[in-house]
């Protein structure tokens, strides 16, 4: 398993993401406010992690949710699903989405993924998401989320650069 997926085996990483209440609630509200889109649908959660998005999809009425998780965290994800009595709706699959074929999972009406991570560029899940879209999303299906915006503003942090001017009498410009 490559280093990227291995880095998500540690719960500390997931604690940071889940502790970002604004983000977690934004996903929850976005999914639960559109139960009409999720009701009786097949959903794939790419990079399911702890299973939180899969659970929200099940709560929104999804018929089946495939929680795809490449890291060893898939075992814990399955425990969380069982603990929340959703094992009849959510199927955890320990695999990279790129390693699956249509014999393992059905094509989906909706693909959810928290692919963008911190600052919209931190995680490297975009390629996996696009693979899932191209191979497992039904015609007319929905990517959730499907749009992202990154805003930037110029700033000046001269103190960051001046630090290198004199390190104990040594210039490191």
TrEMBL record:
<keyword id="KW-0949">S-adenosyl-L-methionine</keyword>
<dbReference type="GO" id="GO:0042054">
    <property type="term" value="F:histone methyltransferase activity"/>
</dbReference>
<dbReference type="InterPro" id="IPR025799">
    <property type="entry name" value="Arg_MeTrfase"/>
</dbReference>
<dbReference type="GO" id="GO:0005634">
    <property type="term" value="C:nucleus"/>
</dbReference>
<dbReference type="GO" id="GO:0035242">
    <property type="term" value="F:protein-arginine omega-N asymmetric methyltransferase activity"/>
</dbReference>
<protein>
    <recommendedName>
        <fullName>type I protein arginine methyltransferase</fullName>
        <ecNumber>2.1.1.319</ecNumber>
    </recommendedName>
</protein>
<keyword id="KW-0489">Methyltransferase</keyword>
<dbReference type="InterPro" id="IPR029063">
    <property type="entry name" value="SAM-dependent_MTases_sf"/>
</dbReference>
<dbReference type="GO" id="GO:0032259">
    <property type="term" value="P:methylation"/>
</dbReference>
<dbReference type="Pfam" id="PF06325">
    <property type="entry name" value="PrmA"/>
</dbReference>
<dbReference type="GO" id="GO:0035241">
    <property type="term" value="F:protein-arginine omega-N monomethyltransferase activity"/>
</dbReference>
<keyword id="KW-0808">Transferase</keyword>
């Amino acid at each position: 398993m490559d280093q990227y997926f291995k880095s998500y085996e540690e719960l500390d990483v997931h604690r940071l993401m889940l502790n970002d209440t604004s983000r977690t609630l934004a996903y929850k509200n976005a999914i639960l406010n559109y139960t009409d889109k999720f009701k009786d649908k097949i959903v794939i959660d790419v990079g399911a992690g702890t299973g939180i998005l899969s659970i929200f999809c099940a709560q929104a009425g999804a018929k089946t949710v495939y929680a795809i998780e490449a890291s060893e965290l898939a075992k814990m994800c399955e425990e969380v699903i069982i603990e929340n009595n959703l094992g009849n709706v959510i199927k955890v699959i320990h695999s990279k989405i790129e390693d699956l074929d249509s014999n393992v999972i059905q094509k989906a009406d909706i693909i959810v993924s928290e692919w963008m991570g911190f600052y919209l560029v931190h995680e490297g899940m975009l390629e996996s998401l696009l693979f899932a879209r191209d191979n497992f999303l039904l015609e007319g299906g929905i990517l959730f989320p499907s749009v992202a915006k990154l805003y930037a503003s110029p700033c000046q942090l001269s103190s960051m650069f001046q630090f290198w001017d004199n390190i104990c009498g040594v210039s490191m410009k």
